[in-house]
Amino acid sequence: MAQPADIRLLAARDSMEALTALLHAAYAPLAARGLNFSAATQSQQTTQRRAAEGQCFIAEQQGRIVGTITVCGPYDLSLAPWAAGVPAFRDRDTAHFHQFAVDPAHQRRGLGRRLVAACERWARERGYKRMALDTAEPAAELRALYRRLGYVEVSQVQWEGKAYRSVIMEKPLDQSPLRAQLRLLARYNLWATQALYGHVDALPEADYRRDLGLFFKSVHGTLNHLLLAEHELWYRRFAEGSSPQMALDAQIEPDRSALRERLVDGALAWLPLIEVWPEARLLGKLDYRRVNGQPASLPFAAALLHVFNHGTHHRGQITAALTALGRPCPELDLALMLVQEESPP
Question: What are residue 300's phi and psi, to 5 degrees?
């Protein structure tokens, strides 16, 4: 078995030609899809200039460069006026990384995760509170990688000369155990929703809408309740401070495909909220009104745990219904998600 690559600082002896060739190779598949990343075609001079903008790390195996990443502090707007419209790139508490690449033959082995971790250590040691990055909105595989590493999308930007819009993603560098736990359960809520739909999508319409004896009768009725409770009630309580009054069995989305889209989008929406809530709020109270109009107050974090637990409860009902129908049902164990995050396909 080959020895893992060593990660070290860029040295004067390192070849800009080899580093540029690595960038070109790593971004070639994206360039072939029409995404004109600078790294896919940039010159050696550009590689050297961008590496000098901050601290460049190199992954080396048997004398060959197989990975790279550069981490920086905030940009000086007098030198980089293009960053004026991106707060994450000029905020004094936020570091960011760019020029990130792993040789195609070494991808999916955890090397990218190690390079990003090196940047995060560098930033923590210098007192930065957040890490930011930007990537192409259509590059779904890159966005998924960053989400697995704890980054969430906070804004979008259209860079001059690019054929795509970019998303700005951020990650807090604080080590709050409570935030880490809520972040984990929010990721699980999204993952389990998508995994469940991998099987629900195969249900014939008649079985999908049949009364199967569930509390909300059908698979559709149960999914509709999840949308209502998680997103129309609890999300609005947390995000907007509002407390809608509505029946828990009200049908708010009759269309099957629209319901799926709204549930997945809603599960994704929790992630950026958890990242931006201050610690004091996580440790505080959530004041709201129940669906009958009565006032209520719960510990903020515990109430959010209830939201994710509620989703697990009803997904369990649906998997039991799939089994009763003689259909395969998904494995929704949290441990399975963690394994998949460590070893992505």
Answer: -55, -55
Q: Give CA torsion, residues 48, 49, 52, 56, to 10 deg.
A: -50
Nearest to residue 138, comparing CAs of 102, 165, 118? 165
Model pLDDT for residues 272-286, shown as the tens digit of each residue: 788 778 788 899 999
* d(C-alpha 57, C-alpha 46), whole Å: 16
Residue 57's DSSP bridge partners are 9, 69
> Residue 97 in contact with residue 57, Cβ under 8 Å?
no
Of the chain, the end-to-end C-alpha distance in Å amounts to 20
Domains present along the chain, CATH in parentheses: 6-172 (3.40.630.30), 177-342 (1.20.120.450)
What is the chain's length?
345
Tens-digit pLDDT profile for residues 262-275: 999 999 889 878 87
Which amino acid is present at 159? W
Measured CA distances, 225 to 181, 186, 248, 329 (Å): 25, 18, 7, 20
